[in-house]
Amino acid sequence: MKNNSDKQANKVILEAPAKINLSLLITGRRADGYHTLDSLIVFAETHDRITISPNKGLAFKICGPFRKMLASDQNNSILQAANLIVERTGVKPNASIILEKNLPVASGIGGGSSNAAAAIHGLNQFWKTGLNNQEVREIGLSIGTDVPVCLLGLPARVSGIGENIEILSTIPSFGLLLVNPGAAVSTSEVFRLRSGSFSREVSSENIGFKNPQALANYLIGLRNDLEVPARKVCPQIADVLKVIGATEECLLSRLSGSGATCFGIFKNRAAASAAKDKICSKYPAWWVNSTIIRNGKVFN
Fold first, then answer.
1. Contact call for residues 86 and 48 (beta carbons, < 8 A)
2. Helix axes 111-126, 77-89, angle to 10 degrees
3. What SS3 class is residue 224?
């Protein structure tokens, strides 16, 4: 896989890929209010892009098709990452950071967490702060529970509140179709509407798949525990899942994260691309993207 870091004239360019929850089980709730989970996660080739270049002071700008849906204030995960690095290292915050926002906002594919991970790696490199892996991880976890797995950027099984990460080396390459009906979904609202008992963790023994069909067969036995409450928040999710599942050669359709982005698994990119064309022609207002998963490290 190509290196996603491009150092030219003191410029650092990093991709922040979409994070896909192939399964998501909510296994409990801690006394501090955090929910525990058990999730299989992969990263797609589809991505936001972050460019860091020299500047006097810290400047932040958002461009791209979804720029208007994202605030550029101090609550942005990229600025949180920059400020935490400055606090920890004392480095002078001189950098221009541009986020090319290609992924839908509040859509269940980890855009904010992936952006934070890319910013941490990029600024650590750009500012030459020398933060080690543990320090990088601590900064990431303080921003959000999804950030640590995004820092690794590899197929993984995640448990706890996101701090327990087991890298999966046997996930086959497969085509991926991402569809969002144009709706932003509040994760906190989805969790608020979740009811019922908690799920049991799944054993990770012998998790290995020879091909996309074997992976899909395994995932059919799992689920996304947030789908039911997410459909209450965004009823269109049911329509999206039905449309994806009806496309030719779709092996599995499911909601990612808290939504509203849903995904379909296909044997290859060509099959996913054919499904994209059909959906786009019928639902032109939806965001539809065909891609493949990454099997190599996102960041070096």
1. no
2. 40
3. strand
Helix pair angle (133-143, 77-89), 10° resolution: 140
User: Do the Cβ atoms of 174 and 281 come closer than 8 Å?
Assistant: no
Cα distances from 32 to residues 29, 35, 36, 65, 245, in angstroms, run 8, 9, 11, 37, 38
Q: What is the DSSP letter of 54?
A: -
pTM, rounded to two decimals? 0.94
- CA geometry: angle at 99 spanning 97 and 105, to 5°? 145
What pLDDT score does 167 carry?
A: 93
Where is 231: in which H helix or E strand?
helix 227-233
Q: Which positions are annotated as active-site residues?
A: 19, 146
Query: What pLDDT does residue 2 have?
Result: 39
Give the separation between CA 104 and CA 178, rounded to whole angstroms: 11
Six token digits for residue 61: 């700008």
CA-CA distance, 299 to 15, in Å (whole number)?
Answer: 8
**Contact assessment for residue 271 and residue 249, using Cβ atoms and an 8 Å cutoff:** yes
Cβ atoms < 10 Å from Cβ of 215: 23
pLDDT at 7: 46
Q: What is the mean pLDDT of each run of 10 residues along the chain (300 residues)?
A: 47 98 98 96 98 97 93 87 98 98 96 97 97 96 96 96 92 97 95 96 77 96 98 98 98 98 98 99 98 88
DSSP-derived 3-state class of residue 127: coil
Domains of the chain in sequence order: 6-167 (3.30.230.10), 175-292 (3.30.70.890)
Tokens of 107: 């859509």
**Are 140 and 132 a contacting pair, CB within 8 Å?**
no
Kindly tell me the sign of the dihedral angle through the C-alpha atoms of 263, 269, 271, 276.
Answer: positive
- What is the residue type of 173? S
3 CB neighbour count, 10 Å cutoff: 11
214 DSSP 8-state letter: H
